[in-house]
Design goal:
By secondary structure, the chain is of the alpha/beta class. About 30% of the residues lie in helices and about 25% in strands. The strands form three sheets. Strands 7, 8, 11, 12, 13, 14, 15, 16, 17 and 18 form a ten-stranded mixed sheet that branches. The chain is globular.
Amino acid sequence: MTTSPVRLLVVGLGAIAVDQYLPQIAQMPDAKVVAVCDVRPEWARRQADRFGIEHVFTDVDEMLASVEADALVDLASIPAHFEVNLKALRHGLHLYSQKPFASTVEEATTLIDEATARGLHVSASPIHMLRPEIREVRRLVAAGAIGKVSLARVRSSHGGPEYFQYRDHDPSWFHQAGAGPLLDMGVHGLTQITGILGPAKAVSCHAGIAEPIRVVRSGAFDGKEIVTGVPDNYLITLDFGGACFAVVDSSYVVKAANGPSLEIFGSAGTVSMGGPGTDRQGGAPFDLYLDDAARGVRGWTQPMYRMARAQQAVGVTDLVAAIREGRSPILTGAHARHVLEIMNACPVAAQEGRTVHLATTFDPA
């Protein structure tokens, strides 16, 4: 256990870093960002000055060689994650990575094995298993509140990064090899449902390009046409065993939606989350329907479950606490690897028209 503030290195200063991670980390009493790294020197210096960070680099290797730290927070673009993460671990640093933390199961296993050999923690986004409402749903399901679960539906889609986000940088890379909605969005729904129900046993999938040409709708590249180079529309079916299935959509074709983002159906009830009643400012609610003849209950419970919304940097908060307390982080590399295996299996299942059985697992506790 350590009592000193945990010294952090941050790689990648995109919108999620400067709008969420850095402001939120600045409020953490037990952590301090000691250096940042980004390929844009003037932008990096400006953000470092804004948050009172002393050291600025444009090269990861130079930063690792120059600054003493305890952990690295990887907020770089998806294709860079594995290389940055492996360098951090080999330099003896604990790791928190934005999703996905690698591109293949083999890469994920390399990171996990490297961390284990060095006695280091690997923690990875998405943060869903640290969200109070998702944890409560998992508790209810595990306690049998809705009986035997047989079906779940998860929406893990939006209209595309070029459609709704104001960006200073070209979003074209989201539609090229190494990115796409599966790695960008599907990872969220897959993490949620496997975190709640446990490891899946098999996956099948449909995939294709629904919108071959896309047009940026906001930001510095407003009006630019993008050629879609990878599938932008996935429909995934997970088999959890025991006739328990989940359907997850992962796409850039949902311009708007007015229904639940997560529904879990059991023999004695239903959990419904993210529907029209969701108050984005006031909390993260979900509804619970119970059918319990013994208690004379049959209907939607009142009031709606409502819990405080977790901040984006809650995964860093948990890693810092794990380092200081000598425990494992809640967001584990094993869970991230299982989700990565599912995502890697989806194109195979879609192209070959078959069900792919999964080999990895994790402890959902």
